[in-house]
Amino acid sequence: MAAPLRGNLDSVPRAARLWYYGAALLAAALATGWLVRVPLAVPVLLALYAFGPLRAEHAYHERAALLGCRPAPRYPARDLLGLRYMFETAASLRGNVMLQRRAQVLATAGHTFVHGIFPDWADCVTTDEPENVKAVLATRFADWNLPAIRIKSFLPVLGAHSIFTTNGAEWQHSRAILRPAFVRDQISDLACVDRHVQKLILRKIPADGKTVFDMQAMLSMLTTDSISDFMFGRSTDLLGDAPPASHRFGAHFDTAMQKIAWRARLGWLTLLRSDPELEEGARAMRAFVRGFVDDVKRERADPNSRRGDGHKYVFLDELLKSGESDEVIRDHLLSIFTAGRDTTTSVLSYLFFELSRRPDVVAAIRAEIEALGTPDPTWEDLRGMRYLNWVLKEALRLNPPVAANQREAVRDTVLPVGGGADGKAPLFVRKGTNLRYVPWIMHRRKDIFGEDAEEFRPERWEDLRVTYEYLPFNAGPRICIGQQFALTQMALITFRLLQAFKAIERRDDRPPIQKLGINLSMLYGCLVSVTPA
């Protein structure tokens, strides 16, 4: 016998009440028949199986009504199993238009909508509302974790101990171990990245004003060399005479990142099939990092080695002092490498695409460099360059490194807005619901950033004040611990390149399509030529 209904039934959607009553009557009728007819056992069990989710659906609407919440729009409207949404997502990923497609839906649905994704029975919520993002990342942080699908998707590459695959106490422990690498003494030391930028300028970039090259590929080599130098005390030397293993590592890394991003966005069905290419790449990446760890451990054990004599900071040396296992250290290294390499490459590739069609912005930055009065800026100098920092903020607005992110509710909770016909009512979210928030779309909202929100205009930052509307590095307890490290790298690289070159010209007429992986990248690269100063 069904439990009596509680609460104000008039506030529960009529469809939910009808489903509940219908399922209850069917289950009761079949159960009565089963007492005299054993052959009816199968339909009884099926009815009871269906009754559970239907009763849960009714309970959800009842509790939401009691809390003053309203349901959010559902997209697609008739997609009970989430199959249509899954196929649509796959198609938009292949066509590199997923972000644009989601922006259209959010604008139509009122900035928050609910959908399914096969084969998960739990609903997903997608939002670009700053108030909802604030609740998820800060004010109701304890109600949300990294989702199970993301962790499962990332495990083959980043491991079980990464800050990107852990929650709770283990995540807090990992973050505490990594945080000392990003204190001011480390991020203000410009020598590591500077020597690699100089190598890029002197050895790689063709500076005749005519030769076309891919700035994105150059920046990828630069950031790989600089982050490996910071982490291991030696670089992959892609800008120099890199061994074949370094090039293979870069190729494996790019492929693996794209594949795990695809899995995380398309859901559990993608995990049913093994992926030999991903597995091979993950093994190669782990072996590559393990080789560095073994070399450093041998050097530390050598009494004649000068390693660790204080001449420069090396991240791996500090990790080894923590006493963590080799497996844990490897996972941390891969995590920092992922964040340190791809964030800077993504943002600067987009920035130099914009600079290639904005000579006025190039001229303004060069004027600020000249006004500084020194060829070798300090960390404090870079922080004080007002226009350069506006430019970086604008590049991060239009090209946030992580364009879309996910969380999973660990308990029933409430989002401040998103419910009701106007999207202004609170939205009740049950335990197990996945939520996707999309900074790339939020950063383009005209009601927040103005009618020219799609345009690259650094001057908007002269008087613009934002909080959770602007999330290039996330926010709350999980805010990126390498934020200042990344900003310092970006500022110095931009300073050096525009100090060396007075003009950057676009050499590609194709549209600037952004490819969505873990981070954003330029689908066709950033094809330019440069003129020396």
TrEMBL record:
<protein>
    <submittedName>
        <fullName>Putative cytochrome P450 52E1</fullName>
    </submittedName>
</protein>
<dbReference type="InterPro" id="IPR017972">
    <property type="entry name" value="Cyt_P450_CS"/>
</dbReference>
<comment type="similarity">
    <text>Belongs to the cytochrome P450 family.</text>
</comment>
<keyword id="KW-0503">Monooxygenase</keyword>
<keyword id="KW-0472">Membrane</keyword>
<keyword id="KW-0349">Heme</keyword>
<dbReference type="GO" id="GO:0016705">
    <property type="term" value="F:oxidoreductase activity, acting on paired donors, with incorporation or reduction of molecular oxygen"/>
</dbReference>
<keyword id="KW-1133">Transmembrane helix</keyword>
<dbReference type="GO" id="GO:0020037">
    <property type="term" value="F:heme binding"/>
</dbReference>
<keyword id="KW-0479">Metal-binding</keyword>
<dbReference type="InterPro" id="IPR036396">
    <property type="entry name" value="Cyt_P450_sf"/>
</dbReference>
<feature type="binding site" description="axial binding residue">
    <location>
        <position position="480"/>
    </location>
    <ligand>
        <name>heme</name>
    </ligand>
</feature>
<dbReference type="GO" id="GO:0005506">
    <property type="term" value="F:iron ion binding"/>
</dbReference>
<keyword id="KW-0560">Oxidoreductase</keyword>
<keyword id="KW-0408">Iron</keyword>
<feature type="transmembrane region" description="Helical">
    <location>
        <begin position="18"/>
        <end position="51"/>
    </location>
</feature>
<dbReference type="InterPro" id="IPR047146">
    <property type="entry name" value="Cyt_P450_E_CYP52_fungi"/>
</dbReference>
<dbReference type="Pfam" id="PF00067">
    <property type="entry name" value="p450"/>
</dbReference>
<dbReference type="InterPro" id="IPR001128">
    <property type="entry name" value="Cyt_P450"/>
</dbReference>
<keyword id="KW-0812">Transmembrane</keyword>
<dbReference type="InterPro" id="IPR002401">
    <property type="entry name" value="Cyt_P450_E_grp-I"/>
</dbReference>
<dbReference type="GO" id="GO:0004497">
    <property type="term" value="F:monooxygenase activity"/>
</dbReference>
